[in-house]
Design goal:
Number of helices: 24
Strand order of the largest sheet: 6-5-4-3-7
Number of strands: 10
Radius of gyration: 45 Å
Strand content: 5-15%
Helix content: 55-70%
Structural class: alpha+beta
Largest sheet: 5 strands, antiparallel
Length: 802
């Protein structure tokens, strides 16, 4: 039965595991004679399958201790065996039949083979014993799981059958009468009354302390927590408020312990009274924890709100449901203790447990509905997609509702064990989820207190720590839902033995060694990079792009060496990764070729440095400054202040224009058009004077003005200037255009714009009145539809309108 049974089994299993570990640590090697006796006894017990669950657990723990010894023996001489194999391999292959070998080499080979055989024999023996122990443990686990399954599927008496009610009432009445009778019997015992009088001062003090703490300590702790969080809204106040709120559990428990000790000091209770006192502390812990958890998840005061909470109008409802579930769980534990002690029959047990199951399932259904309603209301208010965490809470709410509906039906049909298995673990699961939510909030607040700043609560570190809390919660969750401690220890033993891939075994120890060595190497690499970047490279004559290339290259080399040292320190044979590397190369060839191409191109860019950070380049129609070069891509900031990510392969295989590579000297070309009929020599002189006068123009070579040709609308000139800094190209072009406009206005030089002449073959169709027939020999009429004020002396287009 549930209650304290699984807790006691867990404590027993842990104690047995510790004893087995101590035995392994103290033993020099396995005693195979004793193991033979243990294995035979275990196999006989498994074959009979009549031992109790507790006896099987004890036997399993004993066999598990032997298995640990055998596992240690398997790896005891690994290094020595590998050394012998290497020595034998160094002697070369043994000669074939009919061939002679030097006597010294033959003797040495025989000696090494004899040592190898002698050291391998204990290992083979340990392998056989390890396999046998593993088989026995598996068979015991199968028996225990089968018993657990049979208990859940066993159909017992119906609690709704009225024939079972009198027996249940009689058992309950007998228990209460026995408790009262025990008190009366103890009171009529003169020695016990005398002891009670002698202990009266102690009893009085303990009673006063217990009553005060039980009556007021919870209120004081809650009031203090609210005041702390009201006075300061920062994360540190929330952490302090959470710690203070734990007094709602601690101080009432101290009061309950004092009260129980005071009552026990009277010695006026019989066996059932002592059982009641023993259970009170566990029952009190359940009740105090339920009230505290309800007050934190469904707080009365807004200052105590957590990340997940329901609207204020429904918090009182949530507190009622949570506290009621705690009361039901406490009553079930108390009932289970008396049922075991007085050996209630199956019908009485079913009848007495049925009201508790119904009440618990009613509260579960209401609480599940409350969780689902909270998520739905939050989604409607936010008018956006429901967050992942809220979707999990909604799923939990649906599951809780399902359990609340199914469990009473199972209990009514006589499947009481299955109903208990669904109801009470679900209550504990909800409590565990609530604790995980609170701990994640405390972790975020603690991190925000230590590392203040915007967004600290939602940064990566507290998120990862919260995920670790979720992973750790899997252990108690497994125990809640029927997993035995031995199941968890078996998983841990499997993890400790490591994952074997070919001849390579990866254990937790090797994994953590690899992680620690790689982390240390990575930190050293970053420290050296930072020292070079800040202290060494700025004092050299290396350009900024070269400095970035050196720092980046050193980082890649350092990470590679850190990974290599970490793998070696972990004892992983790199040759064992040949198959994985071959498969990976195939994957790279087919699916990752673009990524690898960009990576190799990035290495080439960092080594050859055709472009550097700060260069003004043009590639693929994009023009801008290079801001960063990584191993996969290069980031270019355009003149529109937008970032363009260019794959490195495009920079290597495509055409790239680098305007500032090597130096910043560059040329600007400024086109200028003047009207037909203007003196071209005078225009050339004016433009040459403007170009020579600009401060950014180099004197050698001097600016040049070229008469480029006769355009459709203008005489075309170009000013070509070599600038001291090509980054000022647009500014220089803008300034010179302003000067050209001003000088041309002073000199009376006209800057033309486009004009078109349109010829109409039959202009009479546009006139109102009779049509006038134009003689064929008469020239066409010219009608000018001028689009601009072009020079009237310019020749018109030909008569066909082209």
């Amino acid at each position: 039965m549930m209650g304290l049974t699984w807790l006691r089994a867990a404590v027993l299993s842990v104690c047995l595991a510790l004893l087995a570990t101590l035995a392994v640590a103290q033993a020099d090697g396995p005693d195979y004679d004793r193991w033979q006796n243990t294995a035979t006894r275990a196999e006989q017990a498994v074959e009979a399958a009549r031992a109790s669950d507790q006896a099987f657990e004890i036997l399993r723990a004993e066999v598990a201790g032997w298995r640990q010894q055998f596992q240690n023996q398997l790896s005891a001489n690994d290094s020595r065996l590998q050394t012998l194999r290497d020595q034998i391999a160094a002697l070369g292959p043994a000669p074939e039949d009919g061939q002679d070998e030097a006597t010294e080499i033959a003797d040495r080979r025989a000696e090494l083979n004899a040592q190898l055989e002698r050291l391998s024999t204990p290992r083979r023996t340990a392998e056989e014993a390890f396999s046998r122990a593993n088989g026995v443990i598996t068979e015991i686990d199968d028996i225990l799981r089968q018993r657990q399954t049979d208990a859940l599927l066993n159909m017992g008496p119906w609690p709704v059958n009225p024939a079972n009610w009198p027996g249940a009432m009689r058992h309950a009445q007998d228990t209460m009468i026995a408790v009262v009778a025990g008190v009366r019997q103890a009171w009529h015992n003169p020695s016990r009354r005398s002891n009670a009088r002698d202990n009266l001062p102690l009893i009085a003090v303990l009673l006063v302390v217990g009553v005060v703490l039980l009556a007021r300590s919870r209120y004081w702790s809650e009031l203090l927590a609210v005041r702390i969080q009201r006075s300061d809204t920062r994360s540190g106040a929330r952490v302090a408020g959470f710690i203070v709120s734990l007094g709602q559990i601690l101080f009432p428990m101290l009061g309950l312990v004092a009260f129980v000790r005071a009552v026990r000091a009277t010695q006026l209770f019989g066996p059932r009274g002592d059982l009641l006192l023993d259970s009170l502390e566990v029952v009190g812990l359940v009740l105090f924890f339920a009230r505290w958890l309800a007050s934190r998840l469904f707080p009365k005061d807004e200052a105590l709100r957590v990340s997940f909470t329901v609207p204020a109008r429904r918090r009182a409802e949530g507190r009622i449901y949570a506290v009621t579930l705690g009361i039901v769980l406490a009553l079930y534990i108390l009932l289970a203790e008396f049922s075991d002690f007085d050996r209630y029959d199956a019908g009485s047990d079913a009848v007495l447990n049925f009201p508790l199951i119904v009440l618990a399932c009613l509260m579960l259904t209401r609480l599940g509905w409350l969780l689902r309603r909270r998520v739905r209301d939050a989604a409607e208010d936010a008018d956006q997609e429901v967050p992942y965490g809220d979707r999990i809470i909604a799923s939990v709410g649906r599951l809780v509702i399902l359990v609340g509906l199914v469990a009473p039906i199972l209990a009514a049909l006589g499947f009481g064990a299955a109903a208990k298995f669904l109801t009470y673990p679900m209550i504990l699961t909800l409590a565990l989820i609530g604790m995980v939510v609170l701990l994640q909030g405390v972790i975020r607040d603690t991190y925000a207190t230590l590392r203040p700043g915007d967004g600290a609560r939602d940064s990566l570190v507290p998120t990862l720590l919260g995920f670790v809390v979720v992973l750790l919660a899997i252990i108690p969750l497994s125990l809640i839902w029927g997993a035995r401690v031995t199941d968890l220890t078996e998983v841990w033993a499997t993890i400790r033995s490591g994952l074997t891939i070919g001849d390579m075994t990866i254990s937790p120890g090797s994994f953590f060694t690899l992680l620690i060595v790689f982390t240390v190497g990575y930190l050293i690499t970053r420290a050296v990079q930072n020292a070079l970047k800040v202290s060494v490279l700025p004092k050299t004559r290396i350009d900024p792009g070269g400095q970035v290339a050196i720092v980046s290259g050193l980082g890649y080399v350092g990470i590679f060496l850190a990974a290599l040292f970490a793998i070696t320190a972990a004892g992983i044979d790199l040759s064992s990764l040949a198959i994985v590397a071959g498969a990976l190369s195939v994957g790279i060839g087919f699916g990752l070729q673009t990524i690898v191409s960009n990576f190799v191109s990035g290495i080439i860019l960092l080594i050859e440095r055709p472009i550097s950070e700060g260069d003004w380049i043009e590639v693929g129609g994009q023009m801008g400054y290079v801001r960063s070069i990584s191993v996969r891509s290069t980031r270019i900031e355009t003149f529109d202040r937008t970032d363009v990510i260019v794959p490195n392969a495009d920079l290597i295989s495509g055409t790239v224009t680098n305007y500032t590579r090597g130096n910043t000297v560059g040329r600007v070309i400024i086109p200028v058009g003047v009207a037909y009929g203007t003196d071209t020599r005078r225009v050339e002189a004016v433009l040459k004077e403007i170009a020579d006068a600009h401060p950014m123009a180099l004197a050698n070579p001097p600016p040049a003005v070229l008469f480029m040709g006769f355009g459709a609308d203008s005489l075309d000139f170009e000013i070509r200037i070599i600038l001291r800094d090509v980054n000022w190209m647009l500014a220089v072009k803008n300034e010179i255009n302003h000067q050209i406009a001003a000088r041309f206005e002073e000199e009376g030089i006209e800057i033309p714009f486009a004009q078109r002449d349109v010829w109409l073959r039959n202009p009479e169709v546009l006139q109102a009145g009779p049509k006038v027939k134009t003689p064929p020999s008469a020239p066409p009429t010219k009608a000018h539809l001028e689009e601009s004020d072009m020079d009237p002396d310019m020749p018109a287009e030909d008569g066909d309108g082209r």
